[in-house]
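=== RUN LOG ===
request id: a7f3
mode: sequence -> structure
chains: 1
length: 280
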Amino acid sequence: MRKTSDETCLLCGGADARVVCTYPEFTWVRCSCGLIFKRDESEGAFEYDEDYFVNREHSRTSYSAREGRRVRKSRSQILDVLNHVVPGPLLDMGCSLGYTLQAASDLGLEATGVDISEHAVTFCRERGFRAELGTIHALPFPDAAFQLVIVKHVLEHTAKPREALREIARVLKPGGGLFLAVPHGGYFKARVNPTASRHFRPEVHGTEHFVYYTPATLARLLREESFDPVATAHPQLVHRRAGVVRKAAELAIAPLRFVAQRARTLASLDKEFWVTAVRL
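=== RESULT ===
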């Protein structure tokens, strides 16, 4: 693999990144610290319009399909954070079509969404949720306004992750909880054949994404930006704030889930991973 010319790593500042794959539009590189990032690309070239949310194929279904499953998944993710912090006002960053806002409401939490997309904000407001226009670098909220911040598949969309985490820290109360979900930079298909990977190809995620993390690189970034990554389980096996019936079911199947999750991790089968962190 060839070295890149004049690009320093977004995480460690090193200059020893090597090419992962190249397209006419841009080049993806991997630093020796493990971070994968895009070279020679200006931020803000992708539009999150109605087509993105309604018609664009992200897997085998449209982005707006399977609402019930997405809300249930969001409830589990919020409960992951509540294993480590007390409940309080929640901010869903990149609120999309309101799945996490609905899940927060189901759990009795005061919730606010923010999104760069006018379509997403309008859609959420029409459903009765509070939602505001804003970006991960400029949130329209006062300091320490939230106890919980949920950031799902947003951090990979910025080439300035440190600025983003500092803005998150600004609106998050000290001792508050942060939940992050990002694509896994170590996913085996992306490693074995990066040129053909959906991670990197311009017509799939290559244009809208800027950085790919692993649990180790994201944990390092969080620590350096005043967060304590307290859990990287995907998902956490037992939720202490869940209802009695759910908690009993989780306890009963926890050993099996642990083995299954461990096997997926060892085989590099996870397309995404989750991190829960506490603001120091």
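=== NOTES ===
The chain has a mean pLDDT of 90.
The first helix runs from residue 50 to 54.
=== END ===
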